[in-house]
Design goal:
single chain, about 270 residues, alpha/beta, Rossmann fold, six-stranded mixed β-sheet, 8 helices, 12 strands, about 35% helix, globular
Length: about 270
């Protein structure tokens, strides 16, 4: 299968950047100056304790109306993402796999995905009904989903693992340029985790920038990051390579907090 991105921007050279992002909810600051840059072809992981702002960041990227941006910028291949509606962000090639996917009674998986693909890919790249169904069956089989799955109402009566596979099926059908996985690994047993991870890594390549948001190190055994960032109190407190995963396993987050607390006093005058 090809790894084409839905976005028409610069393949292999695009940049998704977050600069000084500040966000509040009902007057309470959640993000306090987040800086992050993801290039196509890179896999980044974002970890942090509960309440650090990880899911807030994911929701702001896709334009959730409950979050108020009070400062900073998000740019996707040069476009001001914060000025765009959620559907326009999707057309640029930005995709969020939700932590808690919702059910849509009365709308089948196939109908939902055909409508989404038509809206995101546009007239020039729209698939015929037969081509769409052939690709949908192929992608569902890759994720070890029974063909009957595509005729069921979206997420209605789905298990937690089925909902997460549905998110990855959607990602594989839309073929976005930048993907954010918001704790997609939560609630999955090891077999489902491996299947979901395979569905993601099968789409990685020079045209895709990936951000994996997670509480747990185990998904990073299967989706190996190039860069790891630790979010503490609404700021990225530390960034590094894959070696940080082992350090977190051994030491937890307290050492990151302690290092951050010492940093101002240790800074040169």
């Amino acid at each position: 299968m090809t790894n084409e991105a839905a976005n028409t921007g610069p393949a292999g050279g695009g940049i998704f950047s977050i600069e000084g992002l500040r966000v509040q909810v009902e007057g309470k600051p959640i993000l306090n100056g987040v800086d992050l840059e993801i290039r196509r072809g890179e896999t980044h992981a974002l970890m942090g304790p509960n309440g650090s702002g990880k899911s807030t960041l994911a929701n702001v990227i896709l334009g959730h109306p409950d979050y108020e941006v009070t400062g900073g910028a998000i740019r996707c291949d040069g476009h001001d993402l914060l000025a765009l509606a959620p559907e326009e962000r999707a057309r640029l090639g930005v995709f969020l796999a939700f932590q808690y996917p919702v059910a849509v009674p009365g709308v089948t998986v196939a109908r939902f995905l055909k409508t989404a693909c038509d809206a995101v890919l546009g007239e020039a790249r729209r698939l015929s009904a037969s081509a769409f169904l052939a690709r949908l069956r192929e992608e569902a089989a890759f994720l070890e989903m029974d063909e009957s799955f595509i005729h069921r109402p979206l997420n209605e009566g789905f298990s937690g693992g089925e909902k997460k596979r549905m998110e990855i099926l959607q990602m594989r059908m839309l073929r976005p340029a930048y993907v954010v996985l918001d704790e997609t690994d939560s609630g999955l047993d090891i077999d489902a985790l491996k299947t979901v991870a395979r569905g993601v890594t099968g789409r990685t390549g020079p045209d895709l920038g990936l951000l994996v948001i997670t509480h747990y190190e185990r998904i990073l055994r299967y989706i190996r990051p190039d860069h790891l960032h630790i979010l503490i109190d609404g700021r990225i407190a530390r960034s590094g390579g894959p070696e940080l995963v082992r350090e977190l396993e051994d030491r937890g987050y307290d050492w990151v907090r302690a290092a951050g607390a010492r940093a101002p006093a240790e800074a040169p005058a």
